[in-house]
Amino acid sequence: MSDRDRNVDLEAVYAALAEGIDAHGPEHSEMFLAKAALLLAEALGDEDRALRAIADAQRNMTGMRRPD
Amino acid sequence: MKPHGKGRWESLYFDYPEFEAPARDGLAMRAPVTIVGAGPIGMVAALTLARYGQPSVIVDAKHTFNDGSRAICVARSSFTALQLLDVLGPFLDKSLPWASGRSFFRGRQILEFFMPDSATERHRPMYNIEQQYIEKFLHDGVAANPLIDMRWRTECTGVAEAEDGDGVALTLRDPDGPYEMRTDWLLAADGARSPIRSMMGLRLAGQNFEGRYIIADIQMENPVPVERFALFDPDARPGSTVLVHQQPDNIWRIDYQLRDDEDEDEALREENIRAAVQKVLDECGYDAPWELEWWSVYSANTLLLDGYRHGRTIFIGDSAHIVPIFGVRGFNNGVLDGVNIGWKLAWHLAGKADEAILDSYDHERRRATLDVIEKSEKSTQFMTPRTRGFAVMRDAALSLALDFPFASQFANPRNMTPYEYHDSPLTLPDAEAWDAGPPPGAAAPDARLDGAFLMDGFGPGFTVLAFGDVPGTGLLEEHDLATVLRLPPEGEAADVYGAGDGDAVLVRPDRFIAARWHRANGAAIRSAITRICAGGLQEDGE
Lengths: 68, 542
Fold this sequence. Notes:
Chain A is mainly alpha-helical and 68 residues long. Chain A is built from 3 helices and no strands.
């Protein structure tokens, strides 16, 4: 882990994203997450790292199974 | 379309002339160049040929100009071309210059953009003028030019490479019936639905976008500064985008997108057009009375021919390529097509250039179209998202743009700038490093000079900008190869071109930079012109 990574309280980010998804519901969650991604990419200021993160996010797109 | 009770040629601001076919007696049945289509691009090509002393015949089935305001945004590059063709005056008098625009999302401003402009340029980035005036002013130049044989009410119904190998055989039909004609070269400027393209069995390839737009023109007194408005998701048309442009004669253009569930025929009914326009005007806060002039519908397609030259037939303008209206690249790129083929064909017909130079038209202008398509796909995907993903990201960007300026750049229309011919066979790459200035292949910029502008002194043909002491340039003038402008090694022109003492820049007849040198001399410049006229520089090993 780099120094930079250690400064990120990912637990807080995790909870904030979850609360955002809950707050905006299925209808607007996509837009909320898209806005968050654009803002984070702008703050990151690194196109390659942003694109790598977007590619990484698309691997293993399976979560826990939810029995009906 | 026109309001109920109005004929197609009745207009609130423009008197359509009525042209007759020429008398058949004495009509030439052989021409070095025949241009099919008297739209703006066909006339630009004819005027370019005539500028260099080459005669042409133009034929058009119509009896007057195209109806409706159509292409209304004329870019600086087109004004430069009109200046070259000596027809700029009426355009300057009539058109409305502008350089900025604003975009709104749900009534809140998210972007104000300024197109690149500089006091060193004679012309502003953009001018608005209705296409009827564009055609009229070009036609005034055509009608006054003894080298151009304009044949209205004359349809081209047949085209074939002559069986005896002697040019192209055309079948033309005017009110007196059909007749045959031969031409050495054929320029197809017959528009988006080009009959010549169909007769030759050629098809445009590319993408049809789903987005449909209504364009409606109204007349309204509303004295406000000229700029371009884009309204995203306005209350007037929730879920849609609207564009507002001002034109001369108090004409306003309202473009609005049809939603996927809207029926086109229903939307085109007059009462629905009137209601839609009124809502947009209300939202803009414009409360002056208005009259409806004309409306039409278009979709945002990107289509082009695989090749622009087919033997002795060359496609120019919309017959060769169709691009989305956003970015105003249809007309403006067509003008560059017309001037590009015009000077090259003129040089070839005059015996000053090999036939190979004509292939560089396809190389340069087809790449220009591909560049337009790439750029306009970005704006089209924003204006008319093709997929759910692009729609979500568009919404994300618009909503971010209310608070964060960085996100408003997605809504920038990225308007027309000329494509640069860096990889053209006619472009000589720099042999030595240059710290500044436009590279070979770029459009030549202007600069203020002695109370006027540098480009005023450009020749009709090649122009050499010689900064300070450049030996041997007299030989270029002696052989009538180029106009030589001897310029001070310091000053605005030198700054704009990044040039110093002993440097030279070679500018092509169409005002694009072909080459530049440090420690230049007349012999090197002459050699470059010779190689350009041979159709290419790339295979030379020097």
